[in-house]
Amino acid sequence: MKIGFFDSGIGGITVLYDTLKVLPNEDYIYYADTSNVPYGPKPKDEVKKYILNAIDFIVEQGVKAVVIACNTATSVAIEALRSKYSIPIIGMEPAVKPAIEKNKDMNKRVLVTATALTLKEEKLHNLIYKLDNEHVVDLLPLPGLVQFSERLEFDEQIVLPYLKEELFKFDLNNYEAIVLGCTHFSYYKDMVRKLVPSNVSIIDGNIGTAKNLKRILKEMNLLNEGHGNITFYNSGIRVEDKAELDRYSRLFERMDNINEYNISEKI
């Protein structure tokens, strides 16, 4: 049986990329809701409807687990999904906990970046309230990165000015860590690195999610030896067009360029 991955668009590929390191022999379905991306600016109820319809489709394909590889979708719908399905539903949340734990002396701050909807949601605010005893967390929406990545725009001359304008609203010398709280943002980790002091950590939740998936499948005796195959769906339509498959390959290549780990050879 396959593992389902869901995202509003192509951000979840960054999570699938890290999952292939941890579980290289499983088979996967990747569902991008390309008809409705981006989710961040949309009303919560509308987004929740999109998510529930997409997961219905994924579960109908006979998957053994679903990864909600989208922080916004997790914050909006994870409780409803877990109450509806008996298979494991693995969500994501901005990596606030490891960022705060890294900030041992509490003399510096933590900047959490995400979509506007994620930053507004009660789920994130409850997490911060529980962990941020010293009130060191600041929030920054970066909706432009979602738009850039959906267009496969990775040109530094275009993206860096946007990042500079947004990040330089803060004195980055005062920060211990920057959390990339949207899976789309991980495509730009190398560009963020160029703009922040070398001692500032850049953290996302991708590898932690992959390891959590492996742990849950192992506990449920659901690990199996597949072939590492991926079937792509765009809003419920199977991707078979060569140009669109090439688009997905370019995303894996982008992650290879950042991580120096050649997964794109397997795609």
Automatic annotation (TrEMBL):
EC number: 5.1.1.3
Domain of life: Bacteria
Pathway: Cell wall biogenesis; peptidoglycan biosynthesis
Keywords from the UniProt entry: Cell shape, Cell wall biogenesis/degradation, Isomerase, Peptidoglycan synthesis
Key word Ligase present: no
Reaction catalysed by this enzyme: L-glutamate = D-glutamate
Alphabetized GO MF terms: glutamate racemase activity
PROSITE patterns noted in UniProt: ASP_GLU_RACEMASE_1
GO biological process, alphabetically ordered: cell wall organization; peptidoglycan biosynthetic process; regulation of cell shape
Gene3D superfamilies: 3.40.50.1860
SUPFAM superfamilies reported for this sequence: Aspartate/glutamate racemase (SSF53681)
Coiled-coil regions, chain positions: none
Pfam families, per the entry: Asp_Glu_race (PF01177)
Catalytic residues (UniProt): C70, C182
Chain positions recorded as substrate binding sites: D7, S8, Y39, G40, N71, T72, T183, H184
Family under the similarity heading: Belongs to the aspartate/glutamate racemases family.
Annotated HAMAP family: Glu_racemase
Record's function text: Provides the (R)-glutamate required for cell wall biosynthesis.
This protein's name: Glutamate racemase
Provenance organism: Clostridium diolis
Lineage of source species: Bacteria, Bacillati, Bacillota, Clostridia, Eubacteriales
GN (gene name): yrpC
